[in-house]
Amino acid sequence: MGRPLRADAERSVRAILEAAERVLAEDAGASMEQIAEAAGLTRITVHRRFANRQALLEALAVSAKQQLLDAIGEARPDSAPALVALYRVTANTLRVKSTWRFTLSHATPHTTAAAALWEEIDAYTLELMTRAQNEGILAPDADLDWTRQVYYALLSEALNRPGTDQDPAAKDPDALAALVIDTLLHGAGPHA
Prior knowledge:
Elements: H1 7-26, H2 32-39, H3 43-49, H4 53-74, H5 82-99, H6 101-105, H7 112-134, H8 144-159, H9 173-186
C-alpha cells in the first residue's frame, strides 16, 4: 500500500465514494462525470483519484466492507453475552448496509483487499454463531455455515422489507435488528 493521503485528498476520496454510492444507487450506469458532479468535484479530480470506473467500484467494495468490519468491532462482540453481541452486531451492520445499499447489494469487484475483508467478516460472524451455540442460544446441532447464510439473507431482507419507504420508523436499525434476531432464533413458529 502507498503512503497515506493528505487530509484534503482523503476528504475528496471520501466525497467521491459517498457520491458514487448515492448516484449509482439511482443509476447503476452513471458516468464518472455524474459522480464528480454529485461530489462537487471536477471530473479531473475524480480521475486523479480513480483511473477508471473499475477502480472506483473496487474502492467502493473495499470501503463498504471495511465499514462493515468496523461496525462489527464497534459492537464489541467479545465483551458481551452472545445474544447481546448478536443484537449489537446486527444493528450496527444494518446501519452500514443502509448507507452502502448499492455497493453491498450488487456484485462489486472483489479485489484481494475486499476478499480479505469479507473473509474477516465471515470469520467474526462464524465465531459469534459458535459462541451463541455454546451459550445455548442456537441448537447444539445447528449447521453454523447454513445459519450464517440465513443470517446474511435476513439482514438483506430486513433492509428491503416492503413498506419501509413509506414508514421511516420501519427503517430503524434497532427494530430491524430485533426482527432479524427473533426470526433467526425462532423462525415463524409459535413462541413458547
